[in-house]
Structure to design on (284 residues):
């Protein structure tokens, strides 16, 4: 560092470089944190969508139960087979939507369990309605089977909704924590960068102002006639050149003044000799 010629331009460039580095660091930290926030936001959305799909599946489960119970009292139980088929198709679409979400392995496994449970449930409902269409009176004695199957399906769906809800709450909290951490990190980096920039700017300012102030004071003393005034040649760059130039100028002026003084003494001595010679000649 001592061998670097710290000109004014280089000092300003150093301040600019530090400012750019700080800005870049803040941008990098903000971008990295924003990426993490985006990931958490995507995960939160996936869990929220999953919870909504599970709730829709719960509605389909109830609709299937209602269709089965209607088949016990309807005038045309066979007509309800179309409703069961529609609800079964809707269930398949909802489960496909769940599979399409970006869920972790545990949540995907849970989707598989719900799919298997619905496969058994819809099959049992379809079989019950078909049997009611063939022997409605005989199926009425098996009405409790529908409620039992629906209760089992509710247990599976309730567990799924609870699990995915807990995941959604957790990812939401992670999202808030990540966003808060991002703000804090950006703030810390920005403050540290500003402190570094301020410290560097202050140091560079002092490295310019102090030598200049010393040079001005030396010139004022020099102007008052003190030709012995010199500056310490400790600075580098332009201020160092100024110190050296002042010292050379002072040396030159001192030399000139010394030469003039010597010449004046010699002239005075010669004048005295001429005066003495003139007096001797006049005395004869």
């Amino acid at each position: 560092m001592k061998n670097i010629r710290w000109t004014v331009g280089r000092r300003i460039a150093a301040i600019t470089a530090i400012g750019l580095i700080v800005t870049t660091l803040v941008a990098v930290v903000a971008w990295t944190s924003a990426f993490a926030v985006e990931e958490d936001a995507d995960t939160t959305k996936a869990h929220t969508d999953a919870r909504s799909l599970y709730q829709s599946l719960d509605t389909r489960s109830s609709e299937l139960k209602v269709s089965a119970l209607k088949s016990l009292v309807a005038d045309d139980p066979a007509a309800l087979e179309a409703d069961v088929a529609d609800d079964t198709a809707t269930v398949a679409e909802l489960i496909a939507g769940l599979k399409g979400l970006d869920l972790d392995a545990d949540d995907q496994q849970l989707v598989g369990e719900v799919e298997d449970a619905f496969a058994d449930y819809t099959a049992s409902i379809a079989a019950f309605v078909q049997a009611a269409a063939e022997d409605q009176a005989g199926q009425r004695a098996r009405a409790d089977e529908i409620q039992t199957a629906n209760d089992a399906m509710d247990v599976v769906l309730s567990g799924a909704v609870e699990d995915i809800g807990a995941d959604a709450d957790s990812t939401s909290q992670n999202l808030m924590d990540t966003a808060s951490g991002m703000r804090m990190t950006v703030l810390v980096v920005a403050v540290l960068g500003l402190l570094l920039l301020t410290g560097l700017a202050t140091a560079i300012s002092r490295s310019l102002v102090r030598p200049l102030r010393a040079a001005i004071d030396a010139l004022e003393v020099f102007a008052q006639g003190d030709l012995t005034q010199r500056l310490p040649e400790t600075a580098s760059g332009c201020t160092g050149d100024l110190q050296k130039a002042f010292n050379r100028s002072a040396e030159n002026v001192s030399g000139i003044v010394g030469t003039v003084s010597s010449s004046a003494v010699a002239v005075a001595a010669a004048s005295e000799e001429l005066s003495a010679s003139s007096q001797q000649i006049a005395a004869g």
Observations:
- The two ends are 79 Å apart (CA to CA).
- The first helix runs from residue 8 to 70.
- Helices lie at 8-70, 80-99, 105-134, 136-140, 143-223, 237-283.
